Amino acid sequence: MLVPHPSMLLAPQKTIENAMDNVVVEKIINFDCMPNQPNIPSEFIWPDHEKPCLTPPELKVPPIDIKGFLSGDSQAMSSVCEKVNEACKKHGFFLVVNHGVDMKLLDQAHQLIDDFFTMQLSEKQKAQRKLGEHCGYANSFIGRFSSKLPWKETLSFHYSADKSSRTVENYFVNVMGEDFRHFGNVYQEYCEIMSNLSLGIMELLGMSLGVGREYFRDFFERNESVMRLNYYPPCHKPELALGTGPHCDPTSLTILHQDQVEGLQVYVEDRWYSISPKEDAFVVNIGDTFMALSNGIYKSCMHRAVVNNKVARKSLAFFLCPNRDKVVTPPKDLITKENPRTYPDFTWPSLLEFTQKHYRSDTRTLDAFSRWLQEKKN
User: Fold this and answer.
1) Could you give the CA distance from residue 63 to residue 337 in angstroms, rounded to a whole number?
2) CATH number of residue 307's parent domain
3) Is 2 inside any structural domain?
4) What residue stretches are annotated with the Fe2OG dioxygenase domain (predicted)?
5) Which of 76, 105, 140, 247 is the most exposed place for a label (fewest CB within 10 A)?
6) Phi and psi (nearest 5°) for 62?
7) How many angstroms from the chain centroid is the CA of residue 332?
8) For residues 27-42, b (16+ Cβ closer than 10 Å) or e, as one string?
9) What is the pTM of this model?
10) Within-domain flag for 3
């Protein structure tokens, strides 16, 4: 049963900038008290042209059964590749079922989201994200932005496919303490399974693009990825706020599992559609890094999250990222006279730095990043 509960966020009240430093003055917003207040803080109110549509049409997306593909069924491979190719050229996302992920593990992972975000704020702040970093606990990305704040809390942590290290388990123990080893074990296992699933999907993307099954799998074999727990508290003015603003993920591939509360919306053919949660399905979407790898053939998916005034919403997001040493450059087969080179070579850490220190990720991140690289070069 989903029950709303007290939660606290910190919002920047005012940002003061001078030649020496940036100072953020913070105020506490207690969601337990919010129903008694007529308005939500102005920092969380989005401009009229970006305000959410709370009753958008539902996009009917037939889930793609990948069991046959993963097991090597040649007939299933052809059918799945065709469906994925069409989806990724059009809007950059699709749903997968029969993925082989244990539902008990999914239930555990969702339960631990509740356990973490219902803790006292002082406990969660043991993992507080530092300014300029992408991992840790964050309340609406405080310290980075002073307007259009997302109505959410997140916990992000690094995952390495290096089998010699248990990066996720070590993170929880080192940051939160020995009592959180169980958290670390569950999310370590979850990330390992998501990494393997991602590599399988990369085989699918490689075949659908015509560069072979192994090309992108090999590229991401030693991935250094990011896992994020998303928590969207109830908002008594959901028509004014957004859980996450319109954006395309700067990463390569996102594998998302939602709870049973609606909130995910995608932009298709010039309008917003809702994606209804399916307990047995993962939402897969292309990110900017893979759009660059595909030489712009596959589109980074534009999406956002809305909130509601009744219950909290949770989701698990695994962001596949290449190893830091990998140069993001498309296969030669995808560069033609009809489709010339679109984006410059780059490494994932440079794009990550750009989004953490110089640019708020939106629908034009990759274009802005390309210009930034060119300016640096000049």
Assistant:
1) 35
2) 2.60.120.330
3) no
4) 222-322
5) 105
6) -65, 125
7) 29
8) eebebeebeeeeebbe
9) 0.90
10) no
Number of domains within the chain: 1
Residue count of the chain, please give it.
Answer: 378
Task: Please say if 313 is a catalytic residue.
Answer: yes
The one catalytic residue in 222, 313, 341, 371 is: 313
Residue 42's alpha-carbon distances to 12, 14, 19, 322, in angstroms, are: 10, 11, 27, 38
Helix or strand or coil: residue 5?
A: coil
26 confidence band (pLDDT: 50, 70, 90) = very low
* H/E element, 191: helix 181-209
- Name, in order, each residue with C-beta under 8 angstroms of 154's C-beta and a sequence gap of 6 or more: 137, 138, 228, 229, 230, 231
DSSP state of 128: B
Q: Evaluate whether residue 89 is within a structural domain.
A: yes
Candidates 319, 160, 305, 124; CA nearest to 226 is 319
Q: Which two tokens stand for residue 82?
A: 């065709």
3 state SS of 136: strand
Q: Please check the confidence at residue 282 and state whether its pLDDT lies above 70.
A: yes
Which structural domain, as residue segments, surrounds residue 258?
8-377
Please, how many CA atoms are within 13 Å of residue 23, restricted to the half-sphere of its CB? 6
Lowest mean pLDDT among 34-48, 147-161, 179-193, 329-343: 34-48
Q: What angle do CA 103, 109, 111 make, to 5 degrees?
A: 105
Question: What pLDDT sits at residue 74?
Answer: 83
CA distance 308 to 209: 39
Distances from the Cα of 315 to the Cαs of 261, 307, 325, in angstroms? 9, 13, 30
Position 46 in a domain: yes
Distance CA 358, CA 230 (A): 23
- Three-state DSSP state, 41: coil
Q: Which of 183, 140, 166 is nearest to 29 (CA)?
A: 140
Question: Out of 29-38, 118-127, 198-207, which region has the weakest mean confidence (pLDDT)?
Answer: 29-38
What's the pLDDT tens digit per position in 355-365? Answer: 888 888 888 89
| Mean pLDDT score of the chain | 88
Which positions ≥6 away from 137 have C-beta within 8 Å?
124, 125, 126, 127, 128, 129, 153, 154, 155
Question: What's the Cα-to-Cα distance from 63 to each of 26, 79, 99, 279, rounded to whole Å?
Answer: 44, 13, 11, 12
